[in-house]
Amino acid sequence: MKLLTKTTIYFLLIMLPLLTVSAFYLFSQFNKQIRHEIDEELLNDQIQWIRYLDTVNLRSMVFHFSTPEFSLQPADGATQQKPVVQSVMLYQEVEGEKVPYRQLTQLIPIQGKTYLLTLRKSLIERRDLIKNIFFVMMIVFGGLLGFILLLNWLLSKRLWRPFYQSLEKVQGVQLMQLGNLRFSPTSTHEFSRLNAALNTMATRIHRDYISIKELTEDAAHEMQTPLAIAESKLEVLLQDESLSEAQLHAIGQSTEALERLSRLNHSLLQLAKIENHQYDKTQSRSLQQVTNQYLGLLDELIKDKQLTLDTRLSGPAAWQMPDALADMLVSNLLGNAIRYNYTGGQIRVQLDDQQLAISNTSDAPAIPENQLFQRFKKGTPVSDHSNGLGLAIVKKICDTYNLPIRYQFENGVHTFTVFRFSPDSTASFAA
Fold it and tell me: Is residue 427 part of a domain?
């Protein structure tokens, strides 16, 4: 859940109960105030009626008035100094139901007799008024809440913009680009401190990366000379006729190990060159020509394993990559298809203007996606002719030239497909 969404939810959880309590409080205050006003009206009417009855000339000694709003009738008991005001429910024919009234009662003396004076004020119109006021108030509160939420969202989005900008930079950066990564200072103190810390961290990581990369390159270069010397010395020893069969066998094994080490060293150098962008990205190469060339070079290996070769090469498709990388791309994919195939298996090579697909049968299970392009995966057997870097080099070439690569395994057939352009979005790519 995004921070802005989480903040909005917390804000709603706090504001909704507060607004609800405020609404009910205002409703009760409105109701109390209206009752107070009605009580004052009743008291005022009571004073006016008493004044009127004291001055009117009544012919009858006993009289009786009765209406829903006013009632005057003879009563027994002592007169009251203060009136009694209360809420009552009375039936109203117009409404067809009992409606609330505010009622004032008082025993008063009129010309020596005691009468019960009753004054009433209907609350139904005022109740409807309160409901309307409450409805309008809720609309205003709702609009105010919506405006506050919108304002809070807009302000938060603006305030958090430097954070998201820094986050996008971090997500899109690659290790080799850390040297050019810079986070701009902002007017917000906390984000400015964060960007400063990110700048320091990026600089330190890039410096360490450059040091390790230079160490790898230097070590690989320096290893070339002693390896060549060791191989030449072993070749000289192989010419010595005085050596026993066991000694010759040991020298042969040492020579093979040195050859593997030399290939590994060469592959590491190639990876370093690709990562350092030491190849010209503007060059183009026909993969059909490269594929035919390596199929010819690997023909003996294909025949030794009695593999069935199915090639479908159409069009001299020119792919944007230098000759050396095109050779490495095709040779590694074809080499794997032969190396991990079984005797009597099949290889299928398909090339057109859109893609290069190389499939091979194999007894090996599907390669886990998280191990597909990793270097020197622990526990994965490496053959005498493999250095564990073939697919890593292929992936690095594809990444450098924005060529999507997809791996599929179905019915014992492994397929690697390199797309010249991005395929449709429904395709699933191994990364």
Answer: no
